[in-house]
Design goal:
Blueprint (H helix, E strand, L loop, with lengths): L4 E2 L8 H9 L3 E4 L5 H10 L3 E2 L4 H7 L5
Parallel strand pairs: 1-2, 2-3
Helix pairs in contact: 2-3
Length: about 70
């Protein structure tokens, strides 16, 4: 069926997957990224959203809020 977004677990996500989903005009929200390296990598891939158990680390990794 029709869907608006894909929500892969981080170990199942890839840059190529993000690109494929974006080509068909859908969003990608990845879960669960908790380390600065994971969060930075997902940002570089252009994901539309990141689920995390550690919001403070995510904010620092994304360069927001100090």
């Amino acid at each position: 069926g029709e869907y608006q977004a894909l929500h892969p677990y981080i170990s199942n996500a890839s840059r190529e997957q993000v690109q494929r989903v974006h080509r068909i005009k859908r969003r990608v929200h990845v879960w669960t990224a908790n380390t600065p390296d994971e969060i930075t990598r997902l940002k570089e891939w252009g994901v539309d959203g990141i689920f995390t158990d550690d919001p403070a680390t995510a904010v620092r990794a994304l360069g927001r809020g100090g």
